[in-house]
Amino acid sequence: MWRYFVPAAAFVALGGVLAFALVRIGSGHLDVHEIKSPLLGKAAPAFALPSVADPAKRVDSRNLAGHAYLLNVWGTWCAACEEEHPALISIAQSGGVPLIGIDWRDNREEAVRYLAQRGNPYQEVGSDEDGRAAIEWGVYGAPETFLVAANGRVLVKHIGPLTGDVWKQKFVPLLAAAGGK
To answer: What is the Cα 94 distance to its own chain's centre?
Structure first.
């Protein structure tokens, strides 16, 4: 009899946890875009990646020292990245803060073609073909966007497509503290 009770009890417990999470998500108390990053308030990870535009050149975080910037992790294979692209173009045109891209686990030629067709919102784009830079940043999946202050500290992380509303509510209020416009 116990051999049936233990799996049944585990199933009921798992169902309870799932139901609790679904109720919290539905009520707005749990936001899947709000996974806390251990990087918040800490120094941004250093990176030096080959440039998507010119692999002989490097996109190096040392060149960003003393400047606030927005780091966006994306890929041509990512449908949500395509969804957020118009918002990134708009943010880049506003000139509030430089936008740096990390093209994650992607083909460089496809990335060049993608940006040529849709427009390039990035000041620089590094190619992270093996995904190591994204691991250092604690990336769960693309797209993810980070605001890094001029002092090199990560102020905010957003998981999922960056929209105009998310930009205004979550990032713009922090731009002055970050050292951006």
So the answer is: 19
User: Do 38 and 26 reside in the same domain of the chain?
Assistant: no
pLDDT digits (tens, 9 = 90+) for 77-131: 999 999 999 999 999 999 889 999 999 999 999 999 999 999 999 999 999 999 9
Judge if 50 and 114 occupy the same domain.
yes
The CA-based angle 88-90-96, given to 5 degrees, is: 90
HSE-CB at 91 with a 13 A cutoff on CA atoms is 30
Query: Are 135 and 169 found together in one domain?
Result: yes
Structure tokens at 130: 């093996």
My answer on whether 87 and 66 are in the same domain is yes
Percentage of the chain with pLDDT > 90?
Answer: 73
For residue 2, pLDDT over 90 is answered with no
Both tokens assigned to 60: 């190096």
Domain tally, the chain: 2
Mean pLDDT of the chain: 88
Owning domain of residue 91: 32-178
The model's pTM is 0.81
Which has the closest alpha carbon to 94: 1, 13, 168, 20?
Answer: 168
* Residue 107 and residue 41 in one domain: yes
